[in-house]
Amino acid sequence: MKFLICMCFLVIIGLSSAENEKRPALKRIVRSTLGQITTAATEQLKTLIIKNCVENGFADNEDDLKQSFSDLEACVSKRKIYVDDKEDFINNIKECSQESIKKVKGCLTEKQSYFPDFLLNLATKNVELLYDDKEIITTDLVPCMKVFQRFDVSFGYLKCIVTTSKRTNDTATIPDSLENYCSRFLPAIHCLTDILDKECTQYPKVKKYSEDHLRANEYPCEQKYE
Fold first, then answer.
1. Global confidence as pTM
2. Which residues constitute the signal peptide according to the record (predicted)?
């Protein structure tokens, strides 16, 4: 599940290459980077969910799930980050996800059934973050992210992710409770924010992004799921 932790980090790493570009070029790079990351994350999510459904005795549902995921991807791609406004982009994600959420819940155990709604909340809150903190991202976070060009910083980040994963016994099995999942998920979020707080002191607004990033990822863990 470590890919969920790395998604937003990879987005802003992609942004750093556009620091000296004009805004339209920056937007194109953001959209391109997001597209690549979303594709990679989606493939891992599909594999994770299908694996758990098969283990739960629903091997016959695999083709139906794959088709549902393909339909979801096609539906979500109708909107583009920063081109469409925030509300339209998020509402489209929610509308496109409903059928897949039903199918996934149908093959997860009752205790795992929180997971698809958790993922939807996680996605929408991180999209909100990209829109709400857009100015901070483009003017302060992007130049600060150059610190990840240093081996000690980038290696330290990845080491933190791996260490946290081992310490929290992260596995390819969806945990049986939201609390269990978030006990693995949230500590790894600090791997990024701790680095930002330490390395970006010359960019004071990055502190706000760091706090907003934490809140965006804490929010799904604070919700109740049926």
1. 0.83
2. 1-18
Q: Cβ of 204: how many Cβ atoms within 10 Å?
A: 9
| Phi, psi of 18, deg, nearest 5 | -105, 15
Tell me which residue has tokens 């406004």: 85
**Cα–Cα distances in angstroms (integers) from residue 203 to residues 79, 151, 182, 189, in the given order:** 32, 21, 30, 20
Q: For 51-72, how does the pLDDT look when each residue is reduced to its tens digit (9 = 90+)? A: 999 999 998 999 999 999 889 8
The answer as to whether 170 is a domain residue is: yes
Residue 226 inside a domain? The answer is: no
* Separation between Cα atoms, residue 41 and residue 122, nearest integer Å: 13
Number of independent structural domains in the chain: 1
The answer to whether position 207 is within a domain reads: yes
> What gap in Å lies between CA 121 and CA 101, rounded to an integer?
12
In this prediction, residues 208-213 reach a mean pLDDT of 95
**What would the pLDDT profile of 181-210 be if each residue is shown by its tens digit?**
999 889 888 988 999 999 999 999 999 999
Confidence band for 5, pLDDT divided at 50, 70 and 90:
very low
> Are the CB atoms for 148 and 17 separated by under 8 Å?
no
> What burial letters (b/e) apply to 134-156, b meaning 16+ CB within 10 Å?
bebbbebbbbbbebbeeeebeeb
Cβ partners under 8 Å of residue 93, min gap 6: 76, 79, 120, 123, 124, 127
Residues with Cβ < 8 Å from 207, sequence gap 6 or more?
196, 197, 200
- Among residues 193, 142, 102, which one has the least CA distance to residue 20? 142
